[in-house]
Design a protein that fits this description.
Helix content is about 50%, strand content about 15%. It is of the alpha/beta class and about 450 residues long. The longest helix is centred in the N-terminal third of the chain and has 17 residues, at about 65-80. The radius of gyration is 25 Å and the shape is globular. The termini are far apart.
Length: about 450
Amino acid sequence: MRNRSILCLILLFIAAAMLASGCDKGNEDAGPAGANGSSLRGQEEVHAEPFEVTIRHTQVGESKKFRLAILKDVVRQTEADIPGLKIRLDGVDSEVNRKEKLRGEMAAGKPPDIFDVFGSPDSGIYAREGLMLDLTPILDELGLKHKIRGLEPYTHDGKVYGLPAGASIEGFFYNKAYFEEKGLHLPRTLDQLEQLAEFIKADGKIPFAQSSKEAWVPLMTTNNLWSYFAGPEITYGFRSGTAKWTDPEVVRAFEKHKGWVDKGYYMPGELAAEYTDMRNQIISGEAIMMMDGSWANSVFRDPDQAGDLIGKIGYFNMPPEAEGDPYIVMNDFNNGYGFSSSMADDPRKLQTVKRFIVNFWTEEMQLRGLKEDGVLPALVIDAERLADTVSDPLLQDIFNGVEQIDISYPAYDALVQTPVNEALGLGFQQMLSGAAEPGAMLEALQRTQQAANTELP
C-alpha cells in the first residue's frame, strides 16, 4: 500500500486531483453499475474506450415519427448513462426486417445487438438456436418481471427472450363527421356493418379503405371474421392439428371477405396499394371506414398527416354476428425488442441492455407512447394515471374498445408456422384477385399446414 500511495501522490501532481482520487481503494473495488447506473459515472470510467451497439428498429416513415422520437430519446439517455457508448440506429421496414433481413442475419448467426422482433413465433425460433439473450435474470435484477404485461409471446421454456414495446387491438376507424352528417349509427352486428357498407357505396363513397399489397393488412379483417365464425381458439388448432383451414366456418369467413370484395366495398386496384395508401383513402374522404390496428390512431391525431380530419375520426370494434354475442377482438403484445445472446460476452454491452430496458420501460416513456403515438402500454400503470393521460376522443374510443372485449386472441401470424404464413399470404392475394376460389385456396393451405406440422416447431 505504501508504494501505491506514493504512486497516487505522483499522479496527483502530474495529472489532477480527479485522477488521484481514482487510485483510492474504494474506487478500485467499485463494481459494475447497478440498476440506477450511478457507478458507471464513476471517475474510473471517464476515459472508457468507445464502443458501439446497433439497434435495428422499424420506426420508418411519417406514420411512425413519434415512435422514432421516443426511441431516439431512450438512446440518448442510454448513451449518457454509459461512458464510451455510441448507439447506431438501423431503420428497416417492418416486413423487410421480419421476413428478410433479420431472418438472414439469424441464419448467419449474426443478429444486430438489439432488434425489433415479433414475439411469437419468431422469438421462440431464434431462442432455440441460442441467438437471443435470456432476459429472465435481468428482469429479476431490475425488478420488472411483474411490471411488464404481455411477456407470454416472448416466454419459451420458462425463460423470457424479448420485451413487448406495447399492446394493440384491431378494429375499424371511421369518419365520424360523415356518420353524423348522414345520421348513421355504429353497427352492433355484422349485418348492420354490411348495411352501412351498402349505404356508403350507394352514396358514392368507398365503404372500407384497404391495401392488400402486404397480405397481413387485409387479413386483419379475415382473421376477425374466422374468429367470430369458428371461435378464436381455432387458430391455435391449425398448428396442433385439431383444426383445419378447410373447416366449414373458416371457409365461410374467407368467402365473406371475398363477397365484400365482389360487392365493391373496397377500392378497385387496392391489391397493389401499399399499407400507407389505405390511410390516405380515409384522409382524402374517398373511404369512410378502415380496419387497422389501434397503432394507426397516431396518424389521425397528427395535423401534418390527417389535416382537416383531426378530431373527426372515431374507432369501433368489429361487431359480432348477433346482438348480445361476445365481442371477439385481436389484442396482443407481439411487437417488441430482442437482444443478441452475444451481448452477454461483453460486460459493457450487457450493461447497455440493462440501461436500455430501464430507460424504455418507464411510466414516462410508456405514457408518452400512449399520448403521442397511441400505443397501449406494456408496463403496468395505475388506471387513474392512464385516464389522466388520455383526453383525446379517439384514444378514448380505443380504450372503450378494449373494455368492450369479451374474448381476445393473438393475430394468426403469431400462431402459425412461417411456411404457412407465407402460403396464406400468397393464396389470399390470389383469392382477392379472382385467380383462386376460397375453398380451393384453403385446401392448398391445409396441405402446407400438414407438412409444417410434421416438422419440428
